[in-house]
């Protein structure tokens, strides 16, 4: 019973219209049309409705309990009580219900996203409902595609901006290194060269004076080597390359002005990932020392779920956040350059937590 005569028999719909015209009208529309009688049983479904619900034969739905057939559970598998079902509410209240987003159960057990309106429908035995519903799968997919596109566009803009900041920071760092080399090591090396030259000239006339000059030159050269070593360590510590992240962090925290608990595995990871992790720790601990008024800090590194997780927290005053142009912004740019994320917030017991997630190669 799924033709126009069935609809007319349920309530005298479209009085005066030939049954064939009504049947053609209902069969031609793209939305599903679904009629439920006073007892909640399915009495009509048009071809579009049967197709949305994946019934090859619309007649397979007829006479079945509507709620138990297409609406008895939610997408997460939890039951959908019949007395909460908006689709059948018009049978009880006589109101018209419109639902923008819901899910129906298909013949194969899968779920389909739908929107629908349900209106009361008078039958000889009592009030039923006429439901007009639409498959929202394509619309939802299009919206999701637009959302992903917007996210990717935003991400691309953020990456472009972070790369520009990284280039600017690199230029500034090169200028700083140039000043440090000119004002420090270069001046000291010139002093060493002059001392050696004077010592050589004094060898014949006063060997003891020459000895003192050359010893002074040696001491100055050692000081210069120490300055260069510190300068290079600020760029990329050699211990990180030779012994890995755990040793580099231990060396870094050994010089910290407050106690630091360290939990870093001895494993080795890609050089870029280790460098990013090291600078997360270094920058975070530098901020703790400068601003946090903390009494202790902790560093924890774990590898799980395809990523290296780096966490630095302290018991200080808190309130740290990423500011444009600040050190944490530069750190975020460095982390994002390797595809990671950086979050700065409050630690569980006060203080600040700096947490980075650095993806690892599969």
List its salient traits.
alpha+beta, Beta-Lactamase, 362 residues, rod-shaped, 5-stranded antiparallel beta sheet, 5-stranded mixed beta sheet, Single alpha-helices involved in coiled-coils or other helix-helix interfaces, Heat Shock Protein 90, 3 domains
Distance between the termini: 58 Å
Quaternary class: single chain
Nearest-integer average pLDDT: 83
Strand order of the largest sheet: 2-1-5-4-3
General shape: rod-shaped
Q: Work out the count of structural domains.
A: 3
Whole-angstrom Rg: 38 Å
- Under CATH at level 1, the class of the largest domain stands as Alpha Beta
Q: How would you name the CATH homologous superfamily of the largest domain?
A: PAS domain
What fold name goes in the CATH topology slot of the largest domain? Beta-Lactamase
Q: Name the beta content range.
A: 15-25%
Describe the main β-sheet briefly: 5 strands, antiparallel
| Share of residues in helices | 40-55%
Which segments are poorly predicted (pLDDT under 50) over 5 or more consecutive residues?
1-5, 8-15
What would you call the structural class?
alpha+beta
Question: From the 3D coordinates, which CATH architecture of the largest domain would you assign?
Answer: 2-Layer Sandwich
Describe the structure.
- The chain is α+β, with helices and mostly antiparallel strands.
- It has three domains: 4-135, Beta-Lactamase, CATH 3.30.450; 162-235, Single alpha-helices involved in coiled-coils or other helix-helix interfaces, CATH 1.20.5; 238-359, Heat Shock Protein 90 (2-Layer Sandwich), CATH 3.30.565.
- It is 49% helix and 21% strand.
- The protein has eleven helices and ten strands.
- The two termini are 58 Å apart.
């Amino acid at each position: 019973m799924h033709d126009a005569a069935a609809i007319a028999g349920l309530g005298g719909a479209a009085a005066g219209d030939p049954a064939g015209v009504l049947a053609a009208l209902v069969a031609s529309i793209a939305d599903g049309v679904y009629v439920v009688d006073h007892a909640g049983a399915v009495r009509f479904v048009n071809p579009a409705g049967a197709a949305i619900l994946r019934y090859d034969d619309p007649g397979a739905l007829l006479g079945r309990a509507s709620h138990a057939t297409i609406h008895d559970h939610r997408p997460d598998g939890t039951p959908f009580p019949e007395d909460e079902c908006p689709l059948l509410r018009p049978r009880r209240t006589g109101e018209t219900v419109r639902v923008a987003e819901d899910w129906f159960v298909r013949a194969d057990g899968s779920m389909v996203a739908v929107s629908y309106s349900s209106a009361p429908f008078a039958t000889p035995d009592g009030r039923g409902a006429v439901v007009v519903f639409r498959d929202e799968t394509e619309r939802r997919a299009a919206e999701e595609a637009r959302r992903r596109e917007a996210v990717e566009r935003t991400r691309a803009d953020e990456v472009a901006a972070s790369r520009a900041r990284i280039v600017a920071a690199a230029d500034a760092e090169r200028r700083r290194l140039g000043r440090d080399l000119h004002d420090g090591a270069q001046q000291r090396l010139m002093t060493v060269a002059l001392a050696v030259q004077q010592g050589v000239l004094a060898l014949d006339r006063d060997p003891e004076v020459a000895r003192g000059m050359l010893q002074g030159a040696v001491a100055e050269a050692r000081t210069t080597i120490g300055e260069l070593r510190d300068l290079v360590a600020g760029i990329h510590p050699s211990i990180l390359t030779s012994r890995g992240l755990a040793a580099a962090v231990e060396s870094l925290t050994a010089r910290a002005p407050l106690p630091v608990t360290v939990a870093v595995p001895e494993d080795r990871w890609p050089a870029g990932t280790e460098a990013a992790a090291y600078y997360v720790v270094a920058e975070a601990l530098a901020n703790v020392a400068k601003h946090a008024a903390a009494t202790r800090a902790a560093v924890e590194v774990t590898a799980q779920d395809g990523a290296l997780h780096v966490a630095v927290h302290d018991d200080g005053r808190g309130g740290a956040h990423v500011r444009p142009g600040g050190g944490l912004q530069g750190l975020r740019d460095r982390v994002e350059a390797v595809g990671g994320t950086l979050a700065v917030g409050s630690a569980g017991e006060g203080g600040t937590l700096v947490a980075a997630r650095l993806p690892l190669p599969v």
